[in-house]
Amino acid sequence: MKLHEYQSKRIFAEYGIPIPKGNIATTAAEARQIAKQLGGSVVIKSQVLVGGRGKAGGVKLAKTEEETHKIARQILGMSIKGLIVDKVLVDRAVSIKDEIYVGVTIDRSLQRPVIIASAEGGVEIEEVARKNQDAIIRLPIGRRTGLLDYQARNLAYDLGLRRDFINQFVQILKGLYTAFINSDASLVEINPLAVTEDDRLLAVDGKIVLDDNALFRHPDLAELRDTQEETASERQARQVGISFVKLDGEIGCMVNGAGLAMATMDIIKYYGAEPANFLDIGGGAKANKVATALSIILNDIKVKAVLINIFGGITRCDEVAKGILEALNSMEVTVPMVVRLVGTNEKEGRQILAKAKIPTATTLGEAAQKIVALAKGV
Amino acid sequence: MKLHEYQSKRIFAEYGIPIPKGNIATTAAEARQIAKQLGGSVVIKSQVLVGGRGKAGGVKLAKTEEETHKIARQILGMSIKGLIVDKVLVDRAVSIKDEIYVGVTIDRSLQRPVIIASAEGGVEIEEVARKNQDAIIRLPIGRRTGLLDYQARNLAYDLGLRRDFINQFVQILKGLYTAFINSDASLVEINPLAVTEDDRLLAVDGKIVLDDNALFRHPDLAELRDTQEETASERQARQVGISFVKLDGEIGCMVNGAGLAMATMDIIKYYGAEPANFLDIGGGAKANKVATALSIILNDIKVKAVLINIFGGITRCDEVAKGILEALNSMEVTVPMVVRLVGTNEKEGRQILAKAKIPTATTLGEAAQKIVALAKGV
Amino acid sequence: MGILVGKNSRLVVQGITGNEGKFHTLQMKQYGTNIVAGVTPGKGGDWVENIPVFDTVKEAVNIQEANTSIIFVPPRFAADAIMEAAQAGIGLIICITEGIPVLDMARVQSVLREVGTARLIGPNCPGVITPGESKIGIMPGHIHKPGSVGVVSRSGTLTYEIVQALTNKGIGQSTALGIGGDPIIGSNFIDILRLFEADLLTDQVVLIGEIGGQDEQRAAEFIATRMSKPVIAFIAGRTAPSGKRMGHAGAIIEGGEGTAEEKIKALEAAGVKVARLPEEVAELIAAMQT
Amino acid sequence: MGILVGKNSRLVVQGITGNEGKFHTLQMKQYGTNIVAGVTPGKGGDWVENIPVFDTVKEAVNIQEANTSIIFVPPRFAADAIMEAAQAGIGLIICITEGIPVLDMARVQSVLREVGTARLIGPNCPGVITPGESKIGIMPGHIHKPGSVGVVSRSGTLTYEIVQALTNKGIGQSTALGIGGDPIIGSNFIDILRLFEADLLTDQVVLIGEIGGQDEQRAAEFIATRMSKPVIAFIAGRTAPSGKRMGHAGAIIEGGEGTAEEKIKALEAAGVKVARLPEEVAELIAAMQT
After folding, report:
1. Catalytic annotation present for A223
2. Domain B96-222: which CATH number of 3.40.50.720, 3.40.50.10840, 1.10.1370.40, 3.30.470.20
3. Is B145 on the interface with C (CB under 8 A)?
């Protein structure tokens, strides 16, 4: 689960990391009021959960209250990569001398947290990595030892920080690492950590991604979810425990198991069409979950055909078949469908579908070829 | 630094450990008021930092408010092992079915915390150990892993706890371990952890000893020090950074270094007298510290003679000599003294003392024999 | 025999009294797995399918001489269950549970390194099966067939798909297992490839990977330099977009890294034949075995 | 040569710019110790006694090839300084600092075990001296004399007392060191006895113990079973009361355990002669050497 910039920065502040003064506004009038309180120039930043807000015109400077009002009105309501901006962060503007990147994530191969830092902050770290791998410092942290003071200090020296910033940096890094651990994050990131003209370090922009699996430990953080940022389908899928990712193709697919779901997408492509989504109903799904999954798929108007691919282990094929009928009874379905059912209670499932005259297939290859042909109206 | 029972139990409560309802009183009237609020029988417990309060009559049960008043009046002001009781804890009385011991300390050889537990609680753990070493369970805890849930659970099973107490016990043990770590304790102890007639686990008595070296991290805990419990000499020594322990003998001694100070005590005994104290002025002591040390020693009316033994390394012998003169100038000294000075600036020190006609010695053996003879008036 | 599990496996089921635990205990028992104990704290003294239930893994090891554990406990307790098994002396721990927090697993791995005697498979995996001998997992037993192909996978149902394709062609498996779909897992491809390489009854190996991480790329290096047995691979997720988690917590292309193309390229460079379709895996193996 | 320190020691002084650090740097330098670097974070680029100061131990190792460190930093930063030295590749770390919290040291020990390449002496110790070669500590150098007696002690000034008694009798020392008076220390008696036993230039060993803990008792066991060289001991604290800390954080009789009698009994049972007075140690050694 991703947090907004303003949410992330507020959490950083709880861990003693300095952030610019500012507040969140949902109307241009509120934005103007915040600018008035702050005094001087402000930055108005759209709060949407995608990258590239700046390039899309979602981050702007305003010198006066009047200008703040005008710009906030422009930004609120605009669409950035399909997401409507419904709030802006109004921060006091700061003069920046230098920009540092610093983040914490999990190193999968070392199986422990790693601090990533670069003196070349202000751009995406992946971009820095592509240009010059040496500009990035990686510092693995013992899961149980934690970040030691001298490690933070040595990192500050390695970044070439001026001596009078060292202690500030050590405090910020320790705060950031503690925030990472205490919130069970999969990523925390300050970018840029600005060196200001008046010689302070300031977390000007920040990002936190939480580990969904650990949210049960953090009810306060779980509440920060911005359901406005999800589509109705995503929200519905999340609530019933379906993994769903919207794609751009025309073949909807419903599969049990993430690996098999990806393989199903790939095979659709292999036979010349494009998948409309990734959808994993998980293990042991009952009829009602199957029905929900099907309705999510069919809500996508681009979908021209649906492929259902179930390899029953814990999942029972007859339950899947029942769910399909349930969904078909409750909505008008105009697109063709092919169902491939194998494994536990395969025969019972096929019988149920045969009665409803739904086309079935035995192998995945056969199913994919059939559905591609149907989608193309061949 | 030792905490009182009531202080320890309040800290336990912060870590989710259930304790009896109760409050602290410094007058009999307050005690009666607390008993009234609690209702029913209460236990009145003297709060002094020594063991064996029960045997000394410092812990009593009262059935009524009247009785509470009477007993509190008896206990307040009484002397237990030389300490005057100036406050009592008035706790709601509980009916106890069973008593468990559970504590956390540092295992010196394993160099990590160890949980110590016994189903035979209610008496001192050393006593249990003497009778039956097998009645004690020791569970070393990885300093960085911490106490794991299953370890706490397994310990509960090993103690033979009834199944419906397991989860309560796990929570209490985790709380106790966290209290140990978070307060930098050298010992935390619940004894007894009572199984009550109404089937609860309750920390009826408790003890916390803090690591003096870590108090800088815990200003709130450092404030809990009960200076009433120190003698004036102990307080004075602590404030100037002198290690001082009062003993029962007649030869006062002042030494630099703990090992040498103990050896000096031993040699006094070896030559037939008894040391009046352990006193280590530490390394590099200046004249004023030496003067304070001497006045602490001379405040003890039992002291018949004083042996000063300095092996100068960081400590300079001339500074010590100056300190001795300083002390002698500011107080009337009637007891004999022998000074043995070797090491850094030894000659200068001896000259200063020679001028003041203070007897000196070259070896420790010679010094000890001289002082014992002087004390005995030989 | 195969690797990891077999006739000598003496299994303890952690979380045996839960729904999933009970169901799969019966399934494994019917397959012939030697289940000697169950563990559910607070349920010691109970019986499930004539199997004694204990409060602690220590008892299962001391009394029933369990040497292998399978874990069905809920995600928030699963890390503790793994550490309990490891410190009780269990040599092979197979964790089925999905949804364990990543930082919990980081801690588990550091404890496992310290203990030094336990191998972990998973979490978030279907388990391990040595066909005809022992099934320690949730895979459908009947699709497997004893034979000489080792199968290792990050997936569950995709593994079944490929195993069934093998069996349909008459090709049996020495051992088939899933290593799990999480970012931090107990055993990676290399750990398992090393076992297959050393196993006398394994002739070819099937590696089923997916997007995310560097595990397949490292496996490719290992195959190129340390393996004599032929490896056939399949990589899922050629059409997966960047930055989106594909069901498995570990299946995500981040910062443009961990794509299917990257993995396929690395494997092909190591001399591995990479099938384009799941069924093709069986065809490639069949071609080798004739 | 002696053990631990000698002509090959290339010393970095951590906390070189503090009062104690500066003072003892000069003392050690005058004794002939090869000090190649100092470290004080934030003071990199400074010089103390013509010794270059760095911000990090890593630089002292990389640039000046330091292999030994002495630590004078204040107690609240000392644990971090030890871990920095260990992870920078320093092989021998001597920590003089007194008053480090016990839980900090527990953490340090667990990190040192993980790093595996660093030996720690102390904390709260006077350091190590190989007379005539190298003094890495705060002991007065002039009381020492090169020779063949190894001296190991939990104390500071009591060690000086006994060393001077030896020197006064013309008995030199191979190496003399204090292991520290804290409950948790980096090297215990056994660690050092093992080195003296293996050292070609050491003929006899003096062990100076005190009340508290079990270290002397364990040493006795080691001496009885693993040592060929004679050991003479002195134990301070025969008259110390129970339950009171005698200056050193580690010098306390707790629950009736760790008394001087207990230790003396164990040592005598192991064939160790235990002197009743510090001076007697020198007499016992003298009797052996003639």
Report:
1. no
2. 3.30.470.20
3. yes
